[in-house]
Design a protein that fits this description.
AB_hydrolase_fold; AB_hydrolase_1; globular; Rossmann fold; 258 residues; 16% strand; single chain; AB_hydrolase_sf; hydrolase activity; 7-stranded mixed beta sheet; alpha/beta
């Protein structure tokens, strides 16, 4: 499978891993934050967006796909939400390939039952009730993604921008990966594996994310070389706090390169 990719800028490679799973790259703004100092590589993951809808939809296959993107021996990787976990799992499998990890709005390494009920309550309190009545599609996605932003006056505008252009969802991919990740986290071995990971890591949270941020505490405790920054934002911090996000990540990538 040859995924859809986009490259911009010059410098050391920085690979961006979008969330989902089952959607597509939405990192237009983020790429612009770094393309004066890095070769920014964006991609639509297997079965998502502009990439072929080819399985298998497994964590191992997605880790292998990410490995295929790096055109140099080592690169930086920034992942958001599901993509943050993918970046972490990739570094655990291939620590010699990763210079630095930027872990944005992930949900940690604890079993999902420790945080998902809280997220579902928070989501139900914020989502437009029409979400429950709609079939899968663009409008339903916009209503769901609107909950990821703090200010209701601008939330829909931000969500519509993420949904434009619309590349369609892949529920088969989402269901398969979410189920596997749930089983993976139940095994409980990730904290021990993370304690052995010496790759410098930056955790970026939006303090108003509907997903409880204390779910990430055990990951922060486990990583030997970690920084953590909370911004005044929801689940997509570079949209609501672009200056703070850009400064935080650029400083981390520059400092940890010394």
């Amino acid at each position: 499978m040859t995924p859809w990719t986009s490259r911009s800028g010059t410098g050391a490679p920085l690979v961006l891993c979008h969330g989902g799973p089952g959607i597509w790259d939405y990192f237009d703004d983020v790429a612009g934050f770094f393309d004066d100092t890095a070769t920014v590589i964006r991609w639509d993951q297997r079965g998502c967006g502009r990439s072929p809808r080819d399985g298998p939809y497994t964590v191992a296959r997605f880790v292998a796909d990410l490995d295929d993107l790096g055109d140099r021996p080592r690169f930086d990787v920034l992942g958001h939400s599901w993509g943050a976990l993918l970046a972490l799992l990739y570094a655990l499998e291939h620590p010699g390939r990763v210079n630095r990890i930027v872990y944005v709005s992930g949900v940690g390494i604890d079993p999902e039952h420790t945080w998902k009920p809280t997220y579902r309550r928070n989501f139900a309190a914020r989502v437009d009730p029409r979400w429950y009545e709609l079939e899968d599609g663009r409008e339903r996605a916009i209503l769901q993604w609107s909950t990821d932003f703090v200010d209701p006056a601008t939330a829909r505008e931000h969500a519509e921008r993420m949904a434009t252009p619309w590349h369609g969802l892949n529920p088969e991919c989402a269901d398969a990966l979410n189920a596997e990740v749930g089983r993976y986290l139940e095994r409980g071995d990730l904290p021990a594996r993370c304690r052995g990971l010496t790759v410098p890591t930056l955790i970026v949270d939006g303090r108003h994310d509907l997903r409880p941020r204390d779910a990430v505490d055990s990951l922060e405790r486990a990583l030997p070389d970690v920084r953590r920054v909370s911004l005044d934002a929801g689940h997509v911090p570079w949209v609501e706090e672009p200056a703070g996000f850009r400064r935080t990540v650029r400083e981390f990538l520059a400092d940890s390169a010394r």
